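Fold it.
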Amino acid sequence: MKLENLNQIVQSTVSGRMEFVRLAIAALFVVGVMLMTMTIMPDTPNGVLLVVAAVIGGYMALNIGANDVANNVGPAVGSKAITIFWAIVIAGIFEASGAIIAGGDVVSTVKKGIIDPALIGSSDEFIWLMMGALLAASIWLNLATYVGAPVSTTHSIVGGVMGAGIAAGGFGVVDWVTLSQIVASWVISPMFGGVIAAFTLYLIKRTITYQKDKLTAAERWVPIYIAFMGWAFSTYLILKGLKKLVKLDFLTAAFIGLLIAGAIYLLTKSYISKRCKELDNDKFSVSSLFTVPLIFSAALLSFAHGANDVANAVGPLAAINDAVSTATIHAKADIPLWILLIGAVGIALGLALYGPKLIKVVGSEITELDQMRAFCVALAAAVTVIIASQLGLPVSSTHVAVGAVFGVGFLREAIKANYVTIIEDIRSHHADNNRTEEDLEQFFTDFEDADFKHKDQMIKTLKKNSMASDLKKGERKKLKKQHKEELVRRSALYKIAVAWVITVPVSAFMSAMFYFTIRGMLL
């Protein structure tokens, strides 16, 4: 047997053992949830269903951790601002903290008001409906994680509730206006995230990396960008992450965020100034200045995510618990601490066991990220949610974050394609005018050293001298196409887009089937 084949066998064996260990730990968590729920199971006819629902809720929490949390820490890991181990540690702590501290005491029994619970015939049917929705959303998230597609957990549970709701009460039970808003968010969320991230990256390039003295520009502008990020994240956290603890209007939250941003500016200005004296005058050094705020953003996004999205895991479970305990259907249900703990621990554990796969997808398999680009992605996530919430637009945090990554990647492509075209035009011009190779190299050196304004002037000067005048329009297009470099993986784009589009209908179909199955078994 060849040594190469032997190594492959060993690697496969190790990989198989690790997969078994992960599966065993996940199974132990689910069994622990079952045993804990059995000890507090109410003495009612549907008490056993609560235990089953708790197991499914634990399974849902694991899948949320495996899939959805990657959006918060993926860019930081992909940019090498932090290792995947510490990303998992930080995200796990802050996700659990957000769920327990700010997850809330009460949750809507029907996510996003997608159906009217009053139109459901009985509490038994409502319990079956919620169980079917929770199981369908869990399985869909599991499948999406397996194929490496980051999808919206909110959309998954919405699809599940819709499908089981239609199965239980007919098409009239669905609020189709709300559903249309959710469908619109498939376009709105990634578009907003992508445009804001690309615009932020372009601003940073214009004000810092396209300048001749990059460090002087960074010393001036980086504290401003970090302070703006501080404002965005403070406002975002107050409006979204802490909304179940304290309710403040946008203006109040924005003013508090502004005070925090001012403090951050004063703190970072001296730090950035000191760091710039130790760095080289290049874009890699400038990019490194965004490392610390990027780590903080990953932690804060995780906290806000835990506070908001724990309801995706335990909301239906809380609704089932309320229906089992009271034998009635309410629009809102209390979340006992034991249910919050299932969500918090499950999300953190799912991230630790299965999160690395999606973290790599978001962080490095869509486009290459450095700290500067990842900073733009994180900032776009917070700013987009703030803008959308004030406009009353439904957005998915998953779609926003992934859309921001794509936006950064496509901007890089556009800049690269334009730059390559300019370089080829310059070469053609010098060749047509019988310039020496030394002249060409000197021009390139001057061009590289020039700031954005002087680059533009140099290009205009060449155009006045009929730069590449012999190139026809069709030849220019061919040249640009020939040198276009795809910095965004199209396979990732198509896979994720398809997964987003089918999330609601697939979850709906599966939940309807599960509802009929559960109903058939219990009637």
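The two ends are 60 Å apart (CA to CA).
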